[in-house]
Amino acid sequence: MKDSVEPSGLAHQDAAPVILVLERDPLIAEDIIGSLGAVCDCRVVHASQLEEFLAKLVEEAHVLAAFLEMRLSKVVESGLDQTLAQKGAGIVLTVGEDDQKQAQEKGWGMLVRPFSDQMIGEALRSVVRPEAGQVSIP
């Protein structure tokens, strides 16, 4: 599996927004990565384990969004929410649908499984803040 994916036909640009994906299932990860690449000109970085995700997160100066296969309580307990906030990242949870209200109160998105390409785009748009100088997602 590729660690980073860019939309086909687009040249790599260091300034391209970075989206991190934490997902254990390679097929689900590929679906999310492909959909994100179709939604925006971004660099998507995938990790299948939290330790790998944290190592890749450290390498990035700024992160547009993170799609996390983690429950809200685990994100908060681990402090990952604070680390991602420091990088400017919006958070989208991909598991724990019963946490949806709490996630929304925190300004986080929720991607409910099974999901579609459209739902992935909507989840990304829900956490990106163009008014704060972030890239606008069509």
From TrEMBL:
It comes from the Bacteria. This is Response regulatory domain-containing protein. It comes from Marinovum algicola.
